[in-house]
Predict the structure.
Amino acid sequence: MRFDDDADLDTSEVKDVRGGRIPGGKATVGGGIAGVVALILGLLFGIGPEQLGLSSGAPDPVATSSSQAEVDRACRRGSDANTREDCRIVAVVNSVQDFWRAEFPRRQGRYADARTVLFTGRVNTACGAATSAVGPFYCPGDRQVYLDLGFFGELRDSFGSGGGPFAQAYVVAHEYGHHVQNLMGTLQRAGDGGRGAGSNSVRVELQADCYAGVWAHHATTTPDETTGRPLLTSLTDADIRDGLDAAAAVGDDRIQERFQGRVTPETWTHGSAAQRQRWFGIGHRTGDMARCNTFA
């Protein structure tokens, strides 16, 4: 996975509050064994920020380490994305949104940008306050993706993913899949989703996996709005395998077997490892979001 060294990155699509503090002097907290347990609950049982995080009235974190200024300074070119993790996330967000901005008009729609918020420990959102224990998530209330970069270490060390840069890109593209669903009204129609192998919760997650695959199909051909050249210049079969591996690692059955020793499909909220790989694969092979109808 490689980005055009000379491409300009748009850091306005990413808000960085890492190293922030909650006003009043209390440092952010998170991670450790408790964080892993909570992350399992969030991934496996659909427990969201309002149940795993802080009180919904918590104020926004205030950056104390000039983290946004550092990203703005350091993440200027595609070459920076090829060497720094936070710059890579900026580039992936740029690439994903370049694609959806072009795709929606082709389907008589209009895409609205969504910003990614990088945080550590905890963060306040329109969906309630959350700790990093919930893992990456999309909040429909403020149309933002929230990501603690420490999740990628948990994905590798606690969930058995092989990792790799495209595993990270898959996670980001999946969350933007939820943004696409929000713009199209899918999240509203799915309601609270429920649980179980055939639930709307599972269908929503599998469709987001498929949308991530659709972006991957077009990633190396979608022109950047500034240069007219694709921001992502190389995506190999090995990269796609990393994405499929990450999708499998957060399959409900894989997590249940790993952490509770048995599989209980009646509690699924995200789909099995095989389902998640299959739907990402459908999106990647076809490049057609119309093929991502997991509700059919």
About this structure: Residues 22-39, 44-48, 50-65 have pLDDT under 50 and may be disordered. The longest strand covers residues 115-118.
